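Hey, resending since the last one bounced:
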Amino acid sequence: MLDGRWRHAVDRSTQPVGRALVRLHVTADVLTAVGLVMSAVTGVVVASGHLVWGIVLLFPTGLPDLFDGPVAKVSGTASVRGAFFDSVADRVADTLILGGISWYLVVRHHGTAALLPFAILAVTQLISYQRAKAELLGLSAKGGLMERAERFIILGVCFMAGAVSPAAFVPALWGYLSLVSLTAVGRFARVWGEAEGPIRPARTERPARLRRLQHQRGTRRAKVAWRESGAFRPLRPSEPLAARWRAWREAEATARAARQQRRASARARLRSGRHFGRGDY
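The structure tokens again:
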């Protein structure tokens, strides 16, 4: 929900912090690793029963995930490897924190309450898988009630409830499970409605014939632009063959420059956002 409605506002507010971190030679991968380590610390602290400290540690656990994208954009280090590392680190971080909650419930709440964090983990992994699979099929599965930022907020509310009254912790987790389940159902319904018809190939899997047609179209556009620029002069039959050859080479050079410009623009778009959206799954 936050990713869909206020993403641009969040990006504008975090970009100055990203520039400051780049000046300090902090990379996006370092921030991702710090968030992963802090999630392990948070899981251990929660497992030991210190829910108030768990609330405090949620901030250094979640903030690196907020700033690694701006750092990657400012430094120009956005990459597929960084996107993969960030997504995997987010899944591991969720597992560590919810594992700590399960340990806490085993020690202080006897019975089947310790299975509740595993149910939450299963549904959150399903939410991430739905988006990844939909994007692989060329569809969009962004948004929803409980993305990663909202899950951190509600988890902090659950910790607050448990710190105030241990008996309120399990009902709060049941509410958490209900919200993430609604998100999973909503994403499924959205993708199901959008996926009517045959499977659409991903943008990176263009057929060879389509690539040839796009290349030919780009070449024709470049030649038309060259003619309209005034540099084009029709050849007269009386002109020697060398002049014809020189004019043809100029047209090919113009078309080649246009292709290189398009490739540079595509690379710039790739560098402009590390994660093909770093991590709000």
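The mean pLDDT is 79.

Sorry for the duplicate.
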